[in-house]
Amino acid sequence: MSLTLNELIRKLKAKEFKKITIAAGAGISVAAGLSDYRSKDTGLYDQLKKFNLSNPEQVYDINVFRKNPSLYYSVSKEFGTHNLDLQPTFAHQFIYHLDRNDQLLNCFTQNIDGLELVAGVRESKVIQVHGHRRTASCIDCKKTYCVKTFYQNVDKSEIMKCTDCNGLIKPDVVFFGQSLPQLYFEKLPEISLSDLVIIMGTSLQVQPFSNMIYRINENVPIVLINKETNLRRLDPINNKLLIKGDVQDIISSIMKQL
Ligand SMILES: [Zn+2]
């Protein structure tokens, strides 16, 4: 038997779920004004075509950055992805609601915007698997720098270098070729403790999310809220609730009933 939407809402309201794992992707921040990565035409990767890259992921590749940091600088400047003043969406407020009611086990997020924290979710519950932009650091000696200074350099198209070792500075976002944050590895086993898993705004294509679902215990319901719900990875899962549509609209509707 799969969970239904009415049951989900009833059980959330009755606080029957006490260890909810959230897996959140770019789709939960679209309503805040951030571009997601993979949507056709409007996604960042499609918009990057004007940079004539053979593979748009090169922008976030540590080896490419070492050789040609100006590519990341240009893209950051062009798309305003350094906008640090975004506001949380309904999805972020929903995660905060769960935390405030002691129903949140962990929130794994692919997003680097930190809006989960802005919404009020406790820092110990938020695992930003691809890092964040609260600080910047030297890619060689790891010395920490103010991220605002980094983005001032982006605006001036001046490459920022470490005052100690002359290494390149970048925000503490995980690039391809860099290891994931330690907190991710510490919290990953806790997924097996979940009594409900809610996946929002991601199509589970990017590691480590694509494999995280295999750690969920059998019979634990998985809810997917996304504009695309036909995900082959979820085929083997029996107890699942797929809610297809705009994440902001769907969460707004659920929140009104809690
Ligand atoms: Zn350095």
From TrEMBL:
GO terms for molecular function: histone deacetylase activity, NAD-dependent; metal ion binding; NAD+ binding. Signal peptide: none annotated. Transmembrane segments: none annotated. The active site is at H130 (proton acceptor). The keyword Acetylation does not apply. One of its GO terms (biological process) is rDNA heterochromatin formation. It comes from the Eukaryota. It comes from Paramecium tetraurelia. Keywords: Metal-binding, NAD, Transferase, Zinc. One of its GO terms (cellular component) is nucleus. Residues 1-258 form the Deacetylase sirtuin-type domain. Zn(2+) binds at C138, C141, C162, C165. This is Deacetylase sirtuin-type domain-containing protein. Its cofactor is Zn(2+).
